[in-house]
Amino acid sequence: MVTSLDYGAFMEKFSLQLSPSQHQLPLSGLTFAVKDIFDIEGYVTGFGNPDWASTHSAAMSTAPAVMDLLTAGATCLGKTVMDEMAYCMYGVNKHYGTPTNPCAPDRVPGGSSSGSAVAVAAKLVDFSLGTDTGASVRVPASYCGILGFRPSLGAVSTVGVLPMSQSYDTVGWFARDPMILNRIGRVLLHLPDVDPIKPSQVIIAEDCFRLSTIPSDRTAQVLVKSIEKLFGAQCVKHAILGDYVKDKVPSLQHFMDKGNEDQVDDIPPSLAALSSAMRLLQRYEFKNYHAKWVTKVNPDFGPGISERIWDAIKATGENIDFCHSVRTELCAALTALLGDHGILALPTTPGEPPKVQANPATSDIFFSRPFSLLSVAGSSGFCQVSIPLGRYDNVPLAISLVAKHGSDAFLLNLVETLYDTLQETI
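and the corresponding structure tokens:
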């Protein structure tokens, strides 16, 4: 059973490793935990809900992503708590409890990979696996003050991982150390070690930083000073991302009016529309996967989760083709903006983690601000890393770097190169 020393991170604990190798492996000596969305042979994949667990059998095989880590020498210490059916960003679970955020115990840990983030932040494991569909690695990494990596869409196998929305589902990971983050990436992405490459440009998304409640001298300016020190001032560029996206992603017009009812005044309309398109497609794909089970079982869901899931079950296919067009156009637009070795910088989240007892709003308007930032990488399929930047008002804060699809190795190397300078500049 979970104890207070676990910070409520684990669903169940065990020790799983392959036979010791005669030679040193890439992840030898490292421990990890796995979100309860991954199949592990002999264990029921619980999907954060006891009704799901009771109506499904134990997995017959282990997810390839987990097997890759075991084969590389790491030891799995258990499965972690998650938001029900991966359908929230706070990390609150009615049935299994809310894992305690080690960096800010009165704040939510972020979800849906809450337990995986907490296990790393509490130093219970060296790294952990989560999934990121809408935000589920990047948000808990930001809230818990650790590194979180969302890879390029399709870069890591999602076989043996319960689906949420196939157009966005990715396997991500958490670590405290950028070197370990990089080593995990080499294993999961099946990549050789390559030398770091200097970024051709680092574009500061000015309008995105204006959405943040954190002063820019604690986020954007920390990054700018670090980039200038390492690579020179000529590397730093500035852009109004919302204007660029509006000009280059014409299919967003189909979501502009529709998003007005959710829109917060200071969110660029194009980014609010991007968020609306992403959430629409996610709801539709979630329905296609899970409506039959939800309607048959009528599971017991927690507040907020229940409303979102039943809204998804009622979703129609209206505008779905335009959602796919938005994704194609956005990918092309951001590829043209960044080039092969460009970086886009933006806040991971627009503010501090909500307090545990605050019962964050369940309406879409509450999600508009964070998802206007998170949908940039989510909808384009680009890779993104959340990097901790210490504390502000005694809660963790973070910044994110985004690179084009397929540039995962480049981005992981850059984090390792940049990390110490960022921490010194804070």
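(Above: one complete record from the training split.) The two ends are 39 Å apart (CA to CA).
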